[in-house]
From TrEMBL:
PANTHER family with a match to the protein in the record: CYTH DOMAIN-CONTAINING PROTEIN, SI:CH211-156B7.4
Source organism: Streptomyces kaniharaensis
Domain CYTH positions: 1-184
Lineage top rank: taxon: Bacteria
PROSITE patterns linked to this entry: CYTH
Designated name of the protein: CYTH domain-containing protein
SUPFAM superfamilies the UniProt entry points to: CYTH-like phosphatases
Lineage, uppermost ranks: Bacteria, Bacillati, Actinomycetota, Actinomycetes, Kitasatosporales
């Protein structure tokens, strides 16, 4: 499966939130705590690949943990990548297994999200408003699944159409990765850096 996803800077977050709530309901507030792992020599991130453990906490106190591997991007403009993801029962065990296999944590940060599940024209979308503590601005992510590279172009077209209906304009799109922005912030504060990784 390829994650067909686009990201945009939100210029008027209040207006967009009202538009989303009016169309799709109140949304689902969640906090993502993401840890990106890499081989000691940096082979994963240097190769545009990602190994991530995401701990998700819902507003109702619910918790779940996702283990994700993303291969190198197959579309440079959107950054879309083949993705393999599974739910794991124990976050501590997941971290222990990944570390035990020799991978090291390279970067960790939090995303505060409000998610909307959207279905239209036989396709499912995840629409997410995102804030990352320490970074300026609000972002909109819209993603859907493409079964293969031959389906990626129409999938991205459907994502762009939905974002346009939500008021996103051409100049609002961004390919900057949260990991790059967080790493720059860390270097500015005297912290370490990282290679390219995910959204």
């Amino acid at each position: 499966m390829i994650e067909a996803e686009l990201k945009a800077v939100v210029r008027q977050s209040g207006a967009l939130l009202r538009r989303l709530e009016g169309r799709y309901g109140p949304g689902r507030a969640e906090v993502y705590r993401d840890t990106y792992y890499d081989a000691p020599g940096g082979e994963l991130l240097d190769g545009d690949r990602e190994l991530r453990i995401r701990e998700v906490e819902g507003a109702d106190g619910s918790r779940r943990t996702l283990l994700t591997y993303k291969d190198a991007r197959v579309d440079e403009a959107s950054g879309s990548k083949p993705e393999y993801e599974t739910v794991v029962a124990d976050a501590g065990a997941a971290h222990g297994i990944v570390r035990g296999l020799g991978y090291l944590p390279r970067l960790a940060f939090e995303k505060r999200c409000r998610n909307y599940a959207v279905e239209r024209a036989g396709r499912r979308f995840l629409v997410t408003l995102v804030r990352v503590p320490g970074l300026d601005g609000v972002y909109l992510e819209v993603e859907t699944a493409a079964a293969g590279e031959d389906e990626l172009t129409p999938a991205l077209a459907a994502v762009r159409e939905l974002m346009a209906e939500l008021g996103i304009e051409h100049g609002d799109f961004t390919s900057e990765l949260y990991t790059d922005a967080v790493a720059r912030r860390g270097r500015g504060a005297g912290g370490g850096g990282t290679g390219r990784a995910g959204r």
